[in-house]
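Note on ligand handling. Small-molecule inputs were canonicalized before submission; formal charges were left as drawn, and no protonation-state enumeration was performed. Where a ligand contained multiple stereocentres, the stereochemistry in the source SMILES was retained. For zinc ion, this procedure yielded the string shown in the input block below.
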Amino acid sequence: MSAYNQIVIHAPCPHCGEISDIRCQTHVASSFDGVDERFCHHTYHIGETMPWFDAQHPECKNWKQGNSKTPLPLGEETECCYAECLSCQKECCAIIHFSQRTITGFELPGKVENWPAGFYK
Ligand SMILES: [Zn+2]
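Structure output:
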């Protein structure tokens, strides 16, 4: 199992249709190692910057752990995340965008069976 963090977005659920808190599992900037504490199992929101190793640390460059099939510009990352609607508890997926470990935005959640073709599962 790989390390992950959680990002909570406020968006319409593809199952129940409610504007809900949707909890997404991201592998970006996630590690079982850490500096003061592990870089995993924390919860973040849009606009927050995820903590990570200092620039001189050998692991620093490894924050990009998204699953886009398309190479992205330096400093940019994107991930299609498994997610859960906190209203109906059903599983869905949502694309999250990152810039230098800041969570910059998301695309509307979809059903897992409609996993976007541009992302590895
Ligand atoms: Zn729902």
